[in-house]
Design a protein that fits this description.
The structure is a single chain. The chain contains twelve helices and ten strands. The protein is α/β, with parallel strands linked by helices. It has one domain: Inosine-uridine Nucleoside N-ribohydrolase, Chain A, CATH 3.90.245. The chain has an eight-stranded mixed β-sheet with strand order 3-2-1-4-5-6-10-7, with helices on both faces. The longest helix has 21 residues, at 215-235. The radius of gyration is 18 Å and the shape is globular. It binds beta-D-ribofuranose and calcium ion.
Length: 313
């Protein structure tokens, strides 16, 4: 078996973030060295609390959770309670967390970890706006050369946007942070809406989570039933897109995904296309290739992996 991959999950839970965290904690191929919370789907006070609730649900109160940025680098915070509910984790009744929030700020944790660990051994997994990651790169630019890879959920091109016609939520909330990350020179794997819109929480797939009969399986089904109602209405689909777990699934089973190495540029100037990820899929510019952009997923394989792994918790 190849070496365990060490990851930091940067997140704004969010039901789909929660499932991503559960998948990571259930996967022996990964070691979660810390979780950093960022403002996004709901304000930071809730995302850091939700991250701890999910660690406890997974039976992992030992995981270090750090709180980070309360707002984007430049723009005002936009949240998504209309999708995720008032708490960000509406659906199941989960107990208030008792595990502590770490005192160290998330940005300090990211910088210190990357400076302390062997270069090329830590992967960053951003599942929300990229504020914490960009702030860390701004604070200590020398960490860029030490990050193994950034595997992130964000952006969209062929599918357009989900929060504006042009922009996906995570990039739209902090486009200036995204611009910093995409021009950092760090190897990036991007899971855009073009992939995640093919990973639908159909009734059958949610029933499989519930049928696990465990606390985690039932809570996952309850989270997804709440989460999917907004997108089902919007897209007229059976189920909603399960965005963030695609990042973790890629680390465990990269063969489930297909994509292409190309240039991604982020719009930060025009209000009408603010946060758009302009992907040079056809190589029509000479802009440098800065990301592997995924476009396809074996969605049955993805949900089979998720169900099997969540069943271990
Ligand atoms: C992304 O936005 C959030 O609402 C989800 O958690 C996901 O990270 C999808 O656009
Ligand atoms: Ca998220």
């Amino acid at each position: 078996m190849s070496a365990v991959r060490r990851i930091i999950i940067d997140t704004d839970p969010g039901q789909d973030d929660a499932v991503a965290i559960l998948l990571a904690l259930a996967s022996p191929e990964l070691e979660v060295i810390g979780i950093t919370a960022v403002a996004g789907n709901v304000p930071l006070a809730l995302t850091q609390k939700n991250a701890r609730m999910i660690c406890e649900l997974a039976g992992r109160p030992d995981v270090r959770v750090h709180a980070g940025a309360v707002r984007p680098l430049v723009r005002r915070l936009v949240t998504a309670e209309h999708v995720h509910g008032r708490t960000g984790l509406d659906g199941p009744q989960l107990p208030e967390p008792t595990m502590p929030l770490q005192e160290m700020h998330a940005v300090d944790f990211i910088v210190q970890t990357l400076l302390a660990e062997e270069p090329g051994t830590v992967t960053l997994c951003p599942l929300g706006p990229l504020t914490n990651i960009a702030a860390a790169l701004n604070r200590a630019p020398e960490i860029a050369g030490r990050i193994k890879e950034i595997v992130l959920m964000g952006g969209g091109f062929f599918e357009g946007g989900n929060v504006t016609p042009a922009a996906e939520f995570n990039i739209y909330v902090d486009p200036h942070a995204a611009e910093i990350v995409f021009s950092s020179g760090v190897p990036i794997v991007m899971m855009p809406l073009d992939v995640t819109h093919k990973a639908l929480t159909t009734a059958k797939r949610v029933a499989a989570f519930r049928a696990l009969g465990t606390k985690v399986g039932i809570a996952t089904a309850e989270m997804l039933e709440f989460f999917e109602r907004f997108d089902e209405e919007k897209y007229g689909s059976d189920g909603g897109p399960l965005h963030d777990p695609c990042v973790i699934a890629y680390l465990v089973r990269p063969e489930l995904f297909r994509g292409r190495h190309c240039n991604v540029a982020v719009e930060t100037g025009s209000e009408i296309t603010m946060g758009m990820t302009v992907i040079d899929w056809w190589g029509v510019t000479d802009r440098p290739k800065n990301a592997t952009v995924m476009r396809d997923i074996d969605s049955d394989g993805f949900f089979a992996l998720l169900t099997e792994r969540l069943g271990r918790l």
